Amino acid sequence: xxxxxxxxxxxxxxxxxxxxxxxxxxxxxxxxxxxxxxxxxxxxxxxxxxxxxxxxxxxxxxxxxxxxxxxxxxxxxxxxxxxxxxxxxxxxxxxxxxxxxxxxxxxxxxxxxxxxxxxxxxxxxxxxxxxxxxxxxxxxxxxxxxxxxxxxxxxxxxxxxxxxxxxxxxxxxxxxxxxxxxxxxxxxxxxxxxxxxxxxxxxxxxxxxxxxxxxxxxxxxxxxxxxxxxxxxxxxxxxxxxxxxxxxxxxxxxxxxxxxxxxxxxxxxxxxxxxxxxxxxxxxxxxxxxxxxxxxxxxxxxxxxxxxxxxxxxxxxxxxxxxxxxxxxxxxxxxxxxxxxxxxxxxxxxxxxxxxxxxxxxxxxxxxxxxxxxxxxxxxxxxxxxxxxxxxxxxxxxxxxxxxxxxxxxxxxxxxxxxxxxxxxxxxxxxxxxxxxxxxxxxxxxxxxxxxxxxxxxxxxxxxxxxxxxxxxxxxxxxxxxxxxxxxxxxxxxxxxxxxxxxxxxxxxxxxxxxxxxxxxxxxxxxxxxxxxxxxxxxxxxxxxxxxxxxxxxxxxxxxxxxx
Amino acid sequence: xxxxxxxxxxxxxxxxxxxxxxxxxxxxxxxxxxxxxxxxxxxxxxxxxxxxxxxxxxxxxxxxxxxxxxxxxxxxxxxxxxxxxxxxxxxxxxxxxxxxxxxxxxxxxxxxxxxxxxxxxxxxxxxxxxxxxxxxxxxxxxxxxxxxxxxxxxxxxxxxxxx
Lengths: 564, 163
What we know:
Largest sheet of chain A: 6 strands, parallel
Shape of chain B: elongated
Number of strands of chain A: 20
Strand content of chain A: 15-25%
Helix content of chain B: 25-40%
Oligomer: heterodimer
Order of helices and strands of chain B: EHEEHEEHEEHEE
C-alpha cells in the first residue's frame, strides 16, 4: 500500500523504536502533525519553544542512552532549535532532529518561513540530510538514526520539504543500513592495548582521567573494574561524573577549573595518565604548556580526531571505550606481570595529604543560605539517587561538587557548549523517561529565565520536577570573574527586576516556595520531595557573593589553584 | 609545510560546503581546491592544497575523514606523486614584446591559444611552482588576467586513491 511521506515518517519512527518525540507544529510540518494525530504509537510532547524541544530530547537521550527525537517546523522553528542542536553536538548526544522545509519548488526563493536549515546546522551536527524525494525518506531516516547513535554519537538533522510529506510511495523500512563512507571503529588495536597495559603496570603515580565517553559508551562497569583491579585513583570530568562511584575512596573528585585540589594535584604529579573517553578540554587542562608535565599519556577514545588534538599522547587507542577497557582487563589477567603489592602506597599517601586540605569546605555557620549547603542537603534528602539536571554557571559547579553521583546518566548538564536554559527542559525529558524517579533541576535565577516558559509544558504533562533555584540575584559566575579579574566592576551581572518566583510558579499551576534561612532548607526540601505528583519551584535566597572554589584561573596550571 | 590532500567523496549536494565549512570553522587555510566527478558518477574527487605544521595536517586529515560524505582520502605529499595545475593567462603583447613573450612562453612549454593585435592568451600546465615562476618572469604591467585551475594530483606508480 502506498503511504504519504507524513505517514512514512511516523511509521519509520515507530519501526525505529521511537515512542516519544518533542516538538512544535507549524506550516511546513502540518502533514506530519496530521499523521501523528491519527495514530497512538508515537507520543508527541508539545513544548513552548523549539529550543526546549531539543533540550528535552537531549535530557531524554542522556538519561536513557536512546536517541532523542525532535520535530520542528521550517524557518524559525529550525533556527530556534539550533542552540539545542549545538548543545547536543558539543556533548556528543545522540539526537535526530526533523525540520520542516518549504516545498521543494520554493527552496531558494526566500519563501515564507524558509531558512537554509542544512547550511545553518552544518557546523553543529554530526551530519544532515535534505530529503527531496519521498522514495528516499524511510532510508534517510534509518541512516539518520544509524549515524546519530553509532561511533561518536551526535545530533543529525533531517530536513523535509512539505511536498515530500504529501507525496505517496510504497513503504518499507530497511532493517539495517550500510554507508561506504561511514565505518566507525569498534575494537581497539591489540598491540596498542598490550603496550598500554605494560605502561600501566610500571606506573608509580598513575591517574585515571575519564570523561563523558565512558557514560555515552556504557563503560562505567568496566572502568570501575579496571580501577579497582589496579587500585588507581580516578578523576571524572564534568561530563564524566557518575562513571565511577563518587562515594568510593578511589574517587578523588572532579578535575579542571573548579575541580578538587587532590584531583588537579594528582594530575599534575602523575607519571602515567590514562585518559578514557575524555577530550582534554581547555576547562580541564588549564594552561596546556603546564599540563601533566611528567606523565606518559594513554588515550582511549572512539574519535580519532580527539586524539592528540590538544595534548600529544604516547599511546593512542581508538575504539569503543567499553571494548578497549574489557580488552585491557583481559590483558591484565593474562599478563605475567601483576600490580605489585603496595607499589602505590606512597602515591596514595600523597593524594590523601592533598585530600586533607579539604578544598570543598565552606562556612557552615553562616546566617545566610550557602548554595553548597542546599546541594548537600538535596543529596541527603534524595538519598543521592536523584536525576539532577543543571543549567550553567556557579550552581552547575556546586551541583557537580556537592552532589556525588554513584551512577552514570544521573547527572545531566551542558558541559561543552555551556547552554543556560538547558536545565528545565532537560529535566522534562528525564522525567518523561523516568516517571517514577526524582528529577531535580539545580538552576539559578539567571538560567531558569531562559526557558521558564516550559513550566507550562510541565503542567500539561504533569511532570513533578523539583526546581532548585539558587537565587543570589547575580549572574553568579560572571560576577565571580568580575570580582576576581575586573576589580569588581559588575557590568550587567546584576539581575534587576526579578519576578516573584513563587507567584510565577503558582500562576503556571505549580507549587512555589521561597526559602530564606539555612534552618529551613532541609525541611523545605523534605516537604517538596513529598509532593510526588507536583512540580515544586523552590526559590532559595542564597548568600549573594559566594564564589566557586577551588579555581584555576585562566592560564594557570593544574597546580596553581585558588583555594578558599 | 604545503600538503596536497586528495579526497574521494559522495557526489551529493552540499558535500563541497561541508569541506569548505570545516576549514573555515576550524581556522585551517585552503590555498586551492578543485572538485569534479570521477568515472564513477556517485563519487567526486577533490584536491585541496593547504599549509600547516604536522599536527595541524594530522588534524585536518582526521577531521576530513570524520565528515560523513568523505569516503577516502590521501595526503599526496606523503609519497611520490605528480602535481599538475592549468593556467590561462592573458598578457599585453605589443611591438617587440610579442616575440619575447612567445619565447618565454615556449621555454615554459606554454601554448598561445588566442591572439589579438594587442594580446596573447597562453595556456600552461605544470606544478604550481612552475606557474608561479612564469608569472614572476613576466613584467607585471603586461599581465591582464590570470586564471588558475587549482592543483590536481595523482600518486606515482602503484600509488592510487580509489575504492
